[in-house]
Amino acid sequence: MKGKLFSLDSLLLLLVFPLFMIVYSPILLFPNLALRHEITTRHVKSQLITVFGFKGFFYAMLPLLGLIPYFLTFVFLMD
Amino acid sequence: MGLIRRLQLSFSPALVLFFLSPMIAELLSGSSPPVEFFNPLSFIMLISLYGSGAIIMRELKIRWKKGIGSLLLLGAAYGIIEEGLMVASFFNPNWPDVGILGVFGRWLDVNWVWALELTVYHAVVSIVVPIFLVELAYPELRSKSWVSNKALKFLISLFVGVVCMGFILVSVSFDYWPPLLQYVLMFLLAVLLIYLAYKFPANWARVGSKPLRSPLFFGLISLLSMVAGAIIFGILPYFMHFQFSPVIVIFLGLLLIFGVLGFIRRYNWREATDLHKFALVAGILLPFIAIAPLQEFDPNRTDNPVGMSFVGLISLVLLILLGWKVKKRINSDMRSQYKTKFKFNLSSSVFDRVLCILSLPRIMKVFAVWFLAILILIVHWIFNGGANDRTIGFSSLICGFSSLFIWRFRAQLESRVNRWRWRTKTKFIFLGGIGALWVEFVFWLFERIFNASSIAASSNLLLDWLITMPWYLMMTYLLWYVVNKYLFSIFELLLLGGFMSFGLMVF
Question: Scanning every residue of chain A, which has its alpha carbon at the shortest distance from the alpha carbon of B436?
Answer without folding.
Answer: A27
